[in-house]
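Journal club prep — side note

Before the paper discussion, L.F. wants everyone to see what a predicted structure for a comparable chain looks like in token form. Sequence:
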Amino acid sequence: MISFFSKLSLKNTEKPVEELAKSAYMDKSATLQELGYKDDNDLRETIYDFLRTIRDPEKPNTLEDLKVVYEEGIFVKEPTADKVPVLRVEYNPTVPHCSLATLIGLCIRIKILRSIHHPVKLDIYIKKGAHTTEDEINKQINDKERIAAAMENPNLRDLVETCIADEG
């Protein structure tokens, strides 16, 4: 299987770095309560609410409709040493040979990163045994350089934007 990530180059990625002001919600030492969540379960439900509306790239359904994402697949782990929340999101492609499983993982990652307004360590995985190339895909969707390169591809970026766009 050839991945769309392997076709992209990190060359020509020199763009000016914008400095963002560090707001209180960007404080890495903040607790979940200080970030506005009641507890781990509240964070998990918030993440699920973001993910449930992602559209499938091939079908007119959401990932929730197709049971690709599900609330039990979101785990709040022990925070890092500097108290950054750690999230593990597991998803289940509709078929074991789904050719768009990597794209779906990319959509999940981008939707969470754009929707949550504080630092988070994010691990995204295909449900164990749910895809024929799950190890390869898991490696791709958790590699920051590959994610950045994928989002520089205009066609791929447009497809992700279409899938994660909020209805309304």
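L.F.'s comment for the group: Residues 101-115 form the longest helix (15 residues). Keep this in mind when we get to the figures.
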